[in-house]
Amino acid sequence: MSIRFHSASGQRNNRYLLMRHGHSQANAEHLIISTPARGLAGYGLSAAGQVQLDELLANWRWPFPTRILHSDFLRTTETARRVADHFGLGLQPEPRLRERDFGSFEGLPDSRYPEVWAHDARSPEHCEYGVESVASVAARMQGVIASLEQTLRDETILLVSHGDPLQIMLTALEGRLLSEHRAREPLLPASITMLD
Predict the structure, then answer these.
(1) Residue 186 and residue 162 in contact, taking contact as beta carbons nearer than 8 Å
(2) 107-131 as b/e, with b when 16 or more CB fall inside 10 Å?
(3) What is the pLDDT of residue 10?
């Protein structure tokens, strides 16, 4: 799946491809896996996720990346490694690209997500259930791009992250209210969004 995203923020020094990890074991088991304690070493790509990446790489239609930064969770690391191997690139772990911490919902069924999102729609600052606020996610995700813009030029950078953080960042870059991040069409596993 390919999406072109036109940001309201103007010219950048680099091109960015935002990628959600491929279908994971957590997706297959319908579990919320959002903390380093579970996500760094477990719940990598599922068999379906491996197939998604095979197809994506066989039909690559975006600019070739020159750098790859990724969340250090296993599912994003495995996704990034497949792309890096394909293009002969190294990997750079970036903890700011990690999954949003869903607090007390960690390890529970993913049917609990809407409870958090309902609070998000009322306040991007909320930390109900011990979750990381939308505002905090937006700040750290945008901070990744800000850091890269200060140090690099004319690169095509692939950022491999997770669904909620990427949707929150896209909402912020578009200049929309952070409380509206779930109004965006959900990003599918192994999808790529190109920032223009």
Answers:
(1) no
(2) eeeeeebeebeebbeeebebeeeeb
(3) 61
> How confident is the model at residue 156, as a pLDDT?
97
Residues of the chain with pLDDT under 50: 1-9
* Per-residue CA distances from 122 to 4, 117, 138, 168, 177 (Å): 28, 9, 16, 15, 11
State how far Cα 84 lies from the chain centre.
17
Which residues 6+ apart lie within 8 Å of 93 measured at CB?
69, 70, 71, 72, 77
Q: Is the pTM of this model over 0.90?
A: yes
Q: Both ends of the chain: CA-CA distance in Å? A: 17
User: Which residue, among 53, 30, 52, has the nearest Cα to 43 in the 3D structure?
Assistant: 30
Class of domain 2-195: alpha beta
The predicted pLDDT at position 47 comes to 98
Q: What single string gives the DSSP state of each residue in 10-27? A: ---SSEEEEEEPPPBHHH
**pLDDT tens for each residue of 48-103:** 999 999 999 999 999 999 999 999 999 999 999 999 999 999 999 999 999 999 99
- Between vectors from CA 127 to CA 122 and to CA 133, what angle results, nearest 5°? 80
Helix, strand, coil % (nearest 5) of the chain?
45, 15, 40
